[in-house]
Amino acid sequence: MGKVSVQEIKELMTATGVGMMDCKKALVEADGDMDKAVELLREKGLATQAKKSGRAAAEGIVAAVVKGSTGVLLEVNTETDFAANTDDFKAFVAAVADTIIETNPADVDALKAATISGGSSTVDAALTELAGMKIRENIVIRRFTRLEGTLASYVHNGGSIGVLVKLDTDLSGDAVTTIGKDVAMQSAALNPAYLNREQVPDEVLAKEKEIMLAQMAEDPKMANKPEQVRVKIVEGKIGKYYKENCLLEQAFVKDDKLSVQGYVDAEAKKLGGSISVVDVVRYERGEGIEKKEDNFADEIASMIK
User: Fold this and answer.
1) For the chain, percent helix, then strand, then coil, each to nearest 5?
2) What is the pLDDT of residues 150-199, one digit of tens each?
3) Is 226 exposed, middle or buried (0-12, 13-18, 19+ CB in 10 A)?
4) CA-CA distance, 181 to 95, in Å (whole number)?
5) Contact (Cβ atoms closer than 8 angstroms) between residue 184 and residue 152
6) 9 Cβ partners below 8 Å, 6+ apart?
7) Closest CA to 18 of 3, 2, 34
8) What's the predicted TM-score (pTM) here?
9) Helix-helix angle 260-271:174-190, to 10 degrees
């Protein structure tokens, strides 16, 4: 592949934080494969683990609601943030969340067929009315997760990110909820890929080791070391990978002398019981949704105007 588009270069720059020429070279070498280009940049030590995508964007609300021992994390999308901020839209999202808690639908289709909480129409009919008569924009119920047990939630920035946390504990009360919320806030802020090291797939670890060895091969100080020495160094670096990518092993944002697991254990001990974080679900509004982008030249022109 001799040429790559300006848009492809821009996307790789956004995803990795690497300069334009290095991104262009990586894309050419990778024959336009974005994931391979990211891997090449990482092997050269130019990029850390890349962001999911610079192109993911959509408006709407992520809601996290807990009522008693049942909770829901829900994403509903709109075309504009103006529509998402209307009282009608917010009321619809709240009613849909209550419907999920009350009816436990199997999926989005089953949810749309259910009678909306506090009303007489189906969720789908309420959505159609809201979209056609009031909001006048396309509205999509994208996804939801419903959990039962000891739960805590956190919503960031009015619905840009939502997190639902499930705890296994012999304790109860506001102190437990606070601990769960702290864990949820950590997930919202740092977006770890996994809950703990046991969740990291073997193939992911194998690829990380491969990239670390390639990085050492590019480093004059490391390239001449015996292979067995480099392998041992890589094994040590895997511990750092766990601390960066596993929620319970991350440094706790409110006290970086503790890991998240250390924080939970210390607070549980103060309360005279035990607490385990067993599930964390995180939604970021619009992640994975491609939003129509302007032509790069048009974007520059619009900025000048």
Assistant:
1) 50, 20, 30
2) 999 999 999 999 999 999 999 999 999 999 999 999 999 999 999 999 99
3) exposed
4) 23
5) yes
6) 20, 23, 24, 27
7) 34
8) 0.75
9) 180
